[in-house]
Amino acid sequence: MGLAEKRLAESIKTEKLPAFEAKLKDKSGYDINVDIDWNTFISYDEYPLSRLEIVFDDIESFVKKICADDMGKEALQDKMATISLTNSENNDDVKMELKDKTLFLTVQLVQSSFNSQTDSQLVNYIEPLL
Fold first, then answer.
1. Average pLDDT, 10 consecutive residues per value, the chain (130 residues)
2. Whole-prediction pTM value?
């Protein structure tokens, strides 16, 4: 990790993450905390950090789809308070799990490939659990 990764991570922490959390609150009607395991994103190069916004967009879209009405907003609030993001270089680690009001998402934003959950995959996983 070099200075470029540190600067980009700090920019995301101070500017993009608060804006993202505000968008989630706007869509869901409640605060959803986003916990990012920064070490897993900055230990490579700038590439994973530069792709984080794509993950944010899919999460925002998933929350919007679930929270299309008051029933969805209430159901999501009862089951999810936090989203935990981890990056892995191993494609086999990519997964999603809802446990203890936390949605754990492991994405693979390293190397030349890109693997994360789409908004539709998130909806298809979460909706039956609500």
1. 79 94 97 93 73 92 97 97 93 93 92 81 96
2. 0.91
